[in-house]
């Protein structure tokens, strides 16, 4: 095997980018110890990729590190007692108990999320279904309109041909 052909085959690039198979990696590492040309080509490729990465790097905004530090310090200062507490609904009698069971679980926390009643799931499903139906009608009427326009154009050309002597 010629070393120059091996270097130009693309295996070195696959190795540097991490997409080479295990067999290719082991072969490359064995050949690298035997042939210094492969080691030199690998070093050049790695340094070229590093230069490209440095050239294309985008510097973060100047206050990014301070924001990250502040968030970390804020997380570290939070007390451990701020855990979620689950409260079950008090037991009711008859229909009230059956009605409330499984609908909500009261949770105390400092969350920014809002609770959604189970009924909204059906409302969202109905809106989604109606949207699909309206989309179907819109496509149908669009195609009908296009067909009618083509018929009108055909009638116009036919009329123009009959009117010309």
Topology at a glance:
Layout (H helix, E strand, L loop, with lengths): L2 H6 L2 H7 L4 H13 L1 H21 L7 H14 L7 E3 L7 H6 L5 E3 L10 H45 L2
Antiparallel strand pairs: 1-2
Helix pairs in contact: 3-4
Mean pLDDT: 83
How many beta-strand segments?
Answer: 2
Give the N-terminus to C-terminus distance in angstroms. Answer: 83 Å
Principal-axis shape equals flat
| Major β-sheet annotation | 2 strands, antiparallel
Question: In DSSP terms, counting alpha (H) and pi (I) runs of 4 or more, how many helices?
Answer: 7
Flag low-confidence runs. none
Provide the β-strand percentage band. under 5%
How is the largest sheet built, in terms of strand order? 1-2
Rg estimate, integer Å: 35 Å
Percentage of residues in helical conformation: 55-70%
Oligomeric status? single chain
Short overview:
With 165 residues, the chain is mainly α. The chain has seven helices and two strands, in the order H-H-H-H-H-E-H-E-H.
Task: From the structure above, extract its key features.
2 strands; about 160 residues; mainly alpha; single chain
Describe this structure in words.
It is a single chain. By secondary structure, the protein is mainly alpha-helical. It has a domain at 3-56. 68% of the residues lie in helices and 4% in strands. It has 7 helices and 2 strands; from the N terminus they run H-H-H-H-H-E-H-E-H. It has helices at residues 3-8, 11-17, 22-34, 36-56, 64-77, 95-100, 119-163, and strands spanning 85-87, 106-108. A two-stranded antiparallel sheet has the order 1-2.
